[in-house]
Design goal:
mainly alpha; elongated; DNA_alkylation; ARM-type_fold; ARM-like; HEAT repeat domain-containing protein
């Protein structure tokens, strides 16, 4: 893949770029684009000069014109964004003081592309100015642009993996922030930092997401159960996650049990079925209507993959109270 060959960075950076590709922020170039990138570089010298001068107006204008030219040439705008990120990083690598004013201005521009560039650069700024980088990342986690919010979540996941001791305390504050987007960023960051190579972090990462078990916001509901706990923590830390789930399911909260029920709709629930089956058995008899709705959804998901499992032969849903 072209961008993997292009980026000979640290493991954490490669993980970040892969995540950004997954969310269609940074593309894998087609052979045609890869072959013509070197030919269409007339804008790069001007762009480098604008970076050295910290001219945000120059950076944005040159980049905007380059992206328009790329579209006219039948290529994607992301190809130019990709190249621009490399150029900025190259210019700032020996002069990190350029990053601070540059990221400040880019982050404050109400332009999607400018904010995307700012997020990426903040990962490089963090070791030099952590307080400033954190403030800007928190600002961008609440951006009006969805792509910027996604990018910020993955950048924060990279920072949590790379600077766990210093970045973790910040995310414990974000978890209880009034903004659901900031809470979601902390949640996704925890999932991305959960890796097989760092089992010692399992309990701390589970502690980090625990307050969100009571969160009713749709931004959290859509992510916590299946995506984060199921396909994230249960996959990477199966035994530690099972023990924590056994504790959580006893909490007197239908919201908590709803999140647990949703994890059974994840792909990992099939893989870990024997390990977590007793939890599902408890949820089958739950009297809350919302929990039962999630259970039924999980049944449809699991029954296709575990057709001989008798627990999945569900009849009528339990009638009960709803989560307000």
């Amino acid at each position: 893949m072209f961008w993997i060959q292009l980026y000979h960075k640290t493991i954490e950076q490669e993980h970040l770029f892969y995540s950004l590709f997954y969310y269609k922020i940074i593309p894998i170039h087609s052979p045609q684009e890869a072959g013509t990138m070197k030919q269409d570089t007339h804008w790069e010298d001007e762009f480098r000069a604008a970076v050295r001068q910290s001219s945000v107006q120059g950076i944005t204008e040159i980049l905007r014109n380059a992206m328009k030219a790329a579209v006219l040439a039948g290529k994607r705008e992301q190809t130019v964004k990709h190249r621009a990120l490399l150029l900025i990083e190259d210019e700032c690598s020996g002069n990190p003081q350029l990053l601070h004013p540059l990221t400040d201005v880019l982050a404050n521009l109400q332009q999607e592309t400018a904010q995307e560039l700012a997020v990426f650069l903040l990962v490089s700024l963090y070791p030099h100015s952590p307080a400033s980088a954190i403030a800007r990342l928190k600002q961008l986690a609440n951006s009006a642009f969805k792509s910027v919010r996604e990018w910020t979540a993955h950048a924060c996941g990279t920072l949590l993996s790379r600077h766990f001791d210093s970045f973790y305390p910040e995310l414990t504050q974000w978890i209880t922030d009034p903004s659901p987007f900031i809470r979601r960023t902390a949640l996704i960051s925890a999932k991305l930092a959960a890796k097989p190579g760092n089992p010692a972090l399992a309990e701390q990462l589970l502690d980090l997401i625990e307050p969100l078990l009571y969160d009713k916001h749709s931004e959290i509901r859509k992510q916590l159960g299946a995506a984060v706990i199921g396909d994230g923590f249960l996959r990477v830390y199966p035994e530690q996650t099972k023990r924590r789930l056994e504790h959580w399911i006893l909490l007197d909260s239908p919201v908590v049990r709803l999140h647990i029920a949703k994890l059974f709709s994840s792909a990992e629930a099939v893989t870990q079925w024997e390990r977590i089956r007793p939890l599902f058995e408890q949820l089958r008899s739950d009297q809350n209507a919302a929990v039962q709705k999630a259970v039924q959804s999980a049944v449809h998901h699991l029954a296709k993959r575990l057709p001989s499992e008798p627990l999945l032969h569900i009849t009528e849903p339990v009638q009960g109270s709803r989560i307000s």
